[in-house]
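Homework help board

Subject: predicted structure for assignment chain

Our instructor gave us this sequence and asked us to write out the predicted structure in C-alpha cell form, then describe one feature. I got the C-alpha cells but I'm not sure how to describe them. Can anyone check?
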Amino acid sequence: MSASRCAVLLAVFLPLGQWTVLAQAPDPSPAAPAAASAAAPADTTPPDQMDVADLIRMLRHKPPPTGTFDYTKRMKAIAPVIGVKPSSGVIIGGAGNVAFYRGDPATTHISSSVASATVTSKKQAGISARTTMFGRDDRWRAEVDYRFQWTSLDTSGLGIATAEAEPQLARFDFYRLYQSGYMRVRPNLFVGGGLHFDSHADVRAAEGEEAAWEGSPYVLYSTASGLPLDTQMSAGPSAEVIWDSRDSFINADHGSLARASYRVMFDGFLGGDTHWEKVTVDLRSYKRLSDDGRHKLAGWAYADMVVSGVAPYFDLPSTASDGYGRSGRGYAEGHFRGEKLASFELEYRGPITKNGLLGWVAFANATTVSNSLEGERFFDHFAPGGGVGLRLLLNKRSKTNLAFDVGLGERRSRGVYLAIQEAF
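My C-alpha cell output:
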C-alpha cells in the first residue's frame, strides 16, 4: 500500500476510531429516563450456574463473591486459541472478550468487544478487534470491525461445481476497517450506515507454486474483469436497517434479528479499484425448547449478493465472508465463491452439566452460490455441511462461551474451530 493511500486512510478512520474508547467508561450523558436511574438490579443469574471463574474458586477453596450484581463493572473472559482450520492449518494464539453495560440492563442491551492475535502453521498471522456497543437505553448502536492479516488462502473457481477443481494457494496482506453507527427509531429498530474499506495487497503465488499462478482462479477472474493483480481495494459507504429483539447478541436465549444492508463501493474512493454494489440480508431466530431455557434451537439465513458492477476476487461473496467468519462450517474459508451466495443453518444447543458449565451443539448447513461465467444460477446446487461442538461457559453474567466445533462437508472437507462467542 502506498504512503499516500495510508495517509488518506489514517485521516479518515482515526477520528472514527474514537468510538472504541467509549467502551472504557459508562455513558457520561446526564440525561436518562427514570428507568435508567433506578437502583442497580439484583444478579438474575441462576444460583446453581457455574462458569470458569467459579470453577477456579472452587478448586482453590475460595468463597463465592457476595453482594448484588454491579452492572457498571466490565465482564472479562480470556482464552487461548488452539485449533485447526482448512484454510489455516494449526492455529495458536489468544483471544479476549470484554462485555459491559452502558446503562441499566433493564433498558440497555449488553455491549461486547472481542480481540484476538494468532499465528498458524501455514505462515499466517493476524490481529483483529470487533466491537458491538449500545448506548444508554439503546438510543444508539455502534459497530467496529478491524482486521490486519498476513495470510494465504486457497483460490477456487466461482460456483459450486468449479470449486471442486484443484485450488491455487495465494498469499496476500489483508487490511479491513469497518465502522458503522445507528440510531434507534423505535424499540428494537435501528437505522444507520457506515464506512467500509478492504485491501488485499501484495497478492502473489505461494512459494513453489509460481508456475501455475497464471492459470489460477484469482488471475483468470481479475484479468477478465480488468482488475490489477498485485493489489485490489474496495471502499465505500453503506445504508442499513436492523431489527434486533434478541435478549443478547453474545448468546441469545430468545428473540430474532433481521438485518438488511446496501453497500456501494466507488472506483477511486480511498484507492478503490472498481465500482460495484451489493446487498446483504441476515436473518436469525432463537427459540427455547424447554421452560428453563437449557435447550434451544437457533436458525440462520444469510445472503450476500453483488447486484451491480464487478467486485474484486476476494471481495466476492464466499464461504465464511460473514462478519464473524462462521458461515459454512465444514468448508474452508473462501471454498465457495460467486456473485451471489446464500447460506442456511440450524443449530441445536443443549446442556451437558446441570450447572451450565459445559454444553454441546449440533448443526447442519447448506450453501449455494452463482457463477454467471459458467451459467450456474442461484439455487442450482447446494453444498451441505454439518457437525457437533462443545461449549465452556467463560462468564455466566455475559453468557460468553468458549466454542469448539468440528465441521464436515462434501468430498472429505472438514474443519476444527475454536472461538469466543457463538457462531451466530
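Reply (TA_rk): Your C-alpha cells look well-formed. For the description, you could write something like this. The helical segments are 3-16, 52-59, 217-224. That's the kind of observation they're looking for.
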